[in-house]
Amino acid sequence: MLQISANVSLPDSEIVFSAIRAQGAGGQNVNKVSSAMHLRFDVVNSSLPDFYKTRLLKLKDKRINKEGVVIIKAQRHRTQDKNRVEALERLQDLIKSVAIVQKKRIATKPGRSAKSKRMDEKTKRGIDKQLRRKVSGYD
Q: What is the widest separation between alpha-carbon atoms in the chain?
C-alpha cells in the first residue's frame, strides 16, 4: 500500500514492477544481475480520485505515455529492493506534486514613486554621459 496523503493511497496490485539489467558501469555484475527496476502505473484504470487523474494526465512529463501509463526506471542502487523503494518514492512525489494547487498570479503595475525614480535615474545617467563628451569650441 503506497500512501499518497492522509486519505489517498494506492494498493500494491495497481503498481507493476519488472526487473531489468541496469545500464552503465558495474563490472561483471552488471551483465549477470537484473538489479534495475521498471515501475508501471496505469493512471486511467487506477483507484486514484478523478482530481489526481486529470491533473496527472495533463502533465507534460516524459514518464507518462499517451495511454496514461507512468513508467519509472530506477537503477541508482545495486540491489533490487533499494531500486524498488526509490521508484515508489518517485511515483509518490509525482502524484503529490499534482495535488499542489498553484496560486493565481495577479498582474501589478509599478507605482508612481517607482516611475519617478526610474525617470530621475535615466536623467542623471544622461547627464553623466553628456559630461563625458568632448567639449566643442576648444579644438
A: 91
Q: Which residue has the cell 480520485?
A: 49
Domain CATH number, residue 32: 3.30.160.20
Q: pLDDT tens digits for the chain (139 residues)?
A: 888 888 888 888 889 999 988 887 666 776 777 888 999 999 988 888 898 889 888 988 899 999 989 999 998 888 889 999 999 999 999 999 988 888 899 999 999 999 999 999 999 999 999 999 988 877 6
Residue 63 is given by DSSP the state T
Domain membership flag for residue 33: yes
Q: Are strands 36-42 and 69-74 parallel, antiparallel or unpaired?
A: antiparallel
**Residue 24, in any domain of the structure:** yes
Number of domains in the chain: 1
Q: Which residue has the cell 494526465?
A: 57
